[in-house]
Amino acid sequence: MARPSRIPPQILDTMTRGARHAWTLEQLTADLHEGGVQADFSSVYRAVERLLGEGRLVRVGIDDGAPRFELAGEHHDHLRCVRCAALEAIPCVVDRAGLDAVAVRTGYTVTAHRVVLDGLCPACRQR
Ligand SMILES: [Zn+2]
Ligand SMILES: [Zn+2]
Q1: In this predicted model, what pLDDT tens digit does every residue of 54-75 receive, in sequence order?
Q2: For residues 121 and 85, what is the distance between their CA atoms, to the nearest angstrom?
Q3: In angstroms, rounded to a whole number, what is the distance separating the alpha carbons of residues 84 and 124?
Q4: Is the pLDDT assigned to residue 34 strictly greater than 60?
Q5: What is the pTM of this model?
Q6: Distances (CA, A) of 92 to 2, 60, 67, 107
Q7: Which residues pair with 87 in a beta bridge?
Q8: Ligand closest to the CA atom of residue 18
Q9: Centroid of ligand 1 to alpha carbon of 59 (angstroms)
Q10: Strands across the sheet containing 87-90
Q11: Distance 32 CA to ligand 2 centre (A)
Q12: Where are the domains of the chain?
């Protein structure tokens, strides 16, 4: 079993290598095992909590079952396959003028947004 303090850097490593864009805790545990890191689910959970607290990871704002986590970084939006739940990063799809119009209409100061486009990924389209 990996020592607890070694798990957070190994999580960041795994994510930086980028086999996927965002990970559920189950996927992260499995990928760590594949990379030879024997961390159990609750150690991975605690390590992810710690990395979230340190601002190194963020939770992807999608409610479709298990929460998914990704490396903190530049703002981007997401594309999700409704059949296989694949998740991809896409450049921001919201334009500044649209946000300004919302702010004017509602009186809100808009500070953030999360956009998820649903669709079928190329592999699922072929099935
Ligand atoms: Zn993302
Ligand atoms: Zn955006």
Answers
A1: 999 999 977 777 899 999 999 9
A2: 9
A3: 7
A4: yes
A5: 0.84
A6: 38, 14, 21, 23
A7: 80
A8: 1
A9: 9
A10: 87-90, 77-81, 116-119
A11: 30
A12: 1-73, 74-127
- The CATH superfamily label for domain 74-127 reads Ferric-uptake regulator, C-terminal dimerisarion domain (3.30.1490.190)
- In whole angstroms, how far apart are CA 68 and each of 24, 89, 123? 4, 13, 21
Instruction: Calculate how far, in angstroms, residue 99's C-alpha sits from the geometric centre of ligand 2.
Output: 10
Q: From residue 77, give the alpha-carbon distance in Å to each of 12, 17, 55, 68, 91.
A: 21, 20, 18, 14, 6
**CATH class of the 1-73 domain in this structure:** mainly alpha
The HSE-up count of residue 38 (CA atoms within 13 Å, CB side) is 2
Amino acid at 51: L
pLDDT at 1 over 60: no
Residue 23 alpha carbon to ligand 2 centre in Å: 20
81-104 pLDDT, tens digit per residue, is 999 989 999 999 999 999 999 999
Count the helices and strands in the chain (H runs, E runs).
5, 5
- Residue 93, token pair as written in the block: 């799809």
